[in-house]
Amino acid sequence: MLMDNGTLGPAKEVHGYADGAKINFVTWSPDGQHMAFTVRYEDKVDSSVNLSLWVANAESGEARPLCISENIRLNAIFELFVWVNDSTVLVCTIPSSRGNPPKKPLVPFGPRIRSNEHKNVVQMRATKEMLKDLHEEQLFDYYATSQLILVSMDGQVKPIAPPAIYTALDPSPNEKYLMLTSVHRPYSSIVSYERFPKKVELWTVDGTFIREVCDLPLAEDIPITSGSVRKGKRLIRWRPDMPSTLYWVEAQDGGDANVNVSPRDIVYMERADPLNDEKPQVLLELDLRYRRTSWCNGSHALVYEHWYKTRRTRTWVISPDCKDVSPQVLFERSSEDAYSNPGSPIMCRTPAGTFVIAKIKTKYEGTYILLKGQGATPKGSIPFLDLLNINTGVKERIWESSKEKYYESVLALMSYNPKCEIQLNQLKLLVSKESRREPAQYYIKIWPDKNQVQITNYSHPHPQLALLQKEVIRYQRKDGVKLTATLYLPPGYNPSEDGPLPCLIWSYPGEFKSREAAGQVRRSPNKFARISSNFPLLWLARGFAVLADPTIPIIGEGDQEANDS
């Protein structure tokens, strides 16, 4: 627990599960009094893997199985479980009537036939591991189908909704409704499950069906052009600042980015249980492709749109509950221009467990929020924190990382207010601090003096390479484009004494619309050099130099596409 002075209270060890068990999917209840997680262990008799749902009391640390019956087995193919309220968990389980998996028939079902009677030519991206035949469709049904159950803290179980292939479980902020997303037949052998027919339904938490939000058909015809999307309702979400209001977006171009139309996307909003004659409310009409919304309250929300072909991105300020207030453009820029990136808003946790933009109270009039960003500059990334007047667009930098030795970054808001209204002079933030030779440690930074309280003390994960050498280098391509790379050298290497080294180059090309964007610096020399399984720094131990992520830009300026050259 975080104390008022920024320090952490005493640690509590969770106990009660068997030795050797593996813990995954740790999730706190909305009130923070319980912690749910899965326990996975191998059966000593048949070596099968068992997965069960456990819950731990935050005060005592005592853990116990949540489902009393051993016949209840979790299905972890897609969604696993989600807290509905402080004392109830919605869980995906294996249907009790599932039986044995279907066997592949000795005789084939028949020839694979693909027909294109309407002569529609649709380009498709090459994708592996698609469903190949009817037997694999049966296996998909068998393994992915779940029975949803509601489990209370006393172990009481209640089935809800029919068995289906549920891919998303979303309780409403007021804990009254459940939005259940599932996929169903007909399946496809040329696209992944995300494009299978998709149904979104609303249920009450006591198991009453409310309505069908949408049932989208199979989407095999989405154009390959960047910016093309599925037809119909997409990105259906709960509005986090309201009890039970849905919002979503619908393409007006048929999902085809090649079609010129205005508006291109429309954002809608609707109550979970609307009146008979109540129609969805139009929140905003967009000429670019919708990306996301950051909600604050009924007076302010940020809507982001983007167009890949031109790399244009816009951020709108809207007043979702004030129809007489016109939307205003807050930022408009090139998404490739890292130097002009204004950052993203600091979010605050509500009593319902959702996240909205934190409203910052200052001595000045107006509505203020905080923006945190990576702070790309020609000299390297310098993370920052800005105070933004959302009405005027005026920003003030109230903090930035050290430029010399350390790389500091704002991670999350630690101040709490049930209305998400935070006094600037009482601000508490979780930040990380690292250097090229020191692993990231976490601190609580406290305003107004910006004092830091260290809350972690991690040791170096690979001390044998603690003295490796790291440098961000800049150089120029023959065509004049400025490039950047990170050079790693073995500990103790001296070029005058040790001579040249073999060099491993680790990179992948990137697409850009301009030479200027391709030449921008998007890294910091002060970030810790962490060894991982997907990064080649272990070669330093074998005496290699490693040139990591050298910029290899493919540039398509104007109407040209990067890969057309």
Automatic annotation (TrEMBL):
<dbReference type="InterPro" id="IPR029058">
    <property type="entry name" value="AB_hydrolase_fold"/>
</dbReference>
<dbReference type="InterPro" id="IPR011042">
    <property type="entry name" value="6-blade_b-propeller_TolB-like"/>
</dbReference>
<keyword id="KW-0378">Hydrolase</keyword>
<dbReference type="GO" id="GO:0004252">
    <property type="term" value="F:serine-type endopeptidase activity"/>
</dbReference>
<protein>
    <recommendedName>
        <fullName>Dipeptidylpeptidase IV N-terminal domain-containing protein</fullName>
    </recommendedName>
</protein>
